[in-house]
Amino acid sequence: MPKLLEAHRLVKERVLIYADKIGEYPKKVLIKDVRSRWGSCSSRTRTININWRITLAPLEIVDYLIVHELSHLKHPNHSREFWSFVAAILPDYKRRKKWLRKNQVRLMNGSVKIDAAAD
Q1: What is the pTM of this model?
Q2: Contact 38, 100 (CB under 8 A)
Q3: CB under 8 Å to 108, separation ≥6 — which residues?
Q4: Could you give the CA distance from residue 109 to residue 39 in angstroms, rounded to a whole number?
Q5: Does some domain include residue 38?
Q6: Do residues 38 and 108 touch, judged by C-beta distance below 8 A?
Q7: Mean pLDDT across the stretch 93-108?
Q8: What is the pLDDT, as a whole number, of residue 110?
Q9: Which residue range forms the structural domain that includes residue 10?
Q10: Which one of 82, 99, 110, 111 has the minimum C-beta count within 10 Å?
Q11: Is residue 115 part of a domain?
């Protein structure tokens, strides 16, 4: 349970930072223990779900996921407009996305914290 509590604290803190930058605020932020995805967003209920294991990644990767999900509050799809919106907040989002894809198995395993976000 401590991992979930730590994850909840970190995610809430980062959501507040980026919600202010984006101008979109979720009604709920839920930390989940799932093995199938990193996050999801319901633009209808304005609820963001985040997999706690993302907090094992470097902070810049956590930020990428949070910006990605918050951006769905404005663009509830993966359209060109969505990705342009993400890029306006995180110009290097493609590098972060690539890092997450490359390291997802290790993170989903949940047994090791990965400290560096080098390419």
Answers
A1: 0.91
A2: yes
A3: 35, 53
A4: 16
A5: yes
A6: no
A7: 94
A8: 74
A9: 2-109
A10: 111
A11: no
3-state SS assignment for residue 51: strand
Q: How many domains, in total, are found in the chain? A: 1
Two tokens at 5? 């509590």
The residue-averaged pLDDT of 26-41 equals 92
What are the pLDDT digits (tens) for 51-98? 999 999 999 999 999 999 999 999 999 999 999 999 999 999 999 999
Instruction: Calculate mean pLDDT across residues 102-106.
Output: 92
Q: Name residue, tokens 């996050």.
A: 39
CA 109, CA 58: separation in Å to the nearest integer? Answer: 16
Q: What is the mean pLDDT of residues 22-46?
A: 92
pLDDT at 74: 95
CB 90 within 8 A of CB 64: yes
Mean pLDDT for the stretch of residues 14-34:
95
Q: Is residue 31 part of a domain?
A: yes
Determine the residue type at 23.
G
Q: Could you tell me where the DSSP H helices lie in 1-119?
A: 2-22, 59-71, 80-89, 93-109
Do the strands 39-42 and 47-51 form a parallel or antiparallel pair, or are they unpaired? Answer: antiparallel
Cα-to-chain-centroid distance, residue 76 = 15
